[in-house]
Amino acid sequence: MDHAALIADAVKKIFVPWADRSSLLTRTRHVPANAKLPANEIRAANVSGAFKVIGPIGRIGPILLVDDIFTTGATAIEAAKTLISAGASQVYLFTLATGE
Question: pTM to 2 decimals?
């Protein structure tokens, strides 16, 4: 079950029903959950290159990135870098919980 997708659906319906770009970002490979890994450096390496933008997005923004839990920020940072590299002008983060 993709918890972040469930949260994104709820956020989209309540706050931004006009902006459905939920299929904009995808994982390029399966990675172990960062919450189960030690040290920020290991978590950053774990998600490095783990995302790609689906199709050209051109110059768009801002984008609201939704993640289920924020621990060190490694996943959110990597996803935001990927979106900005593809043309997003700004990336904001919404999380439901923090860990550790």
Answer: 0.71
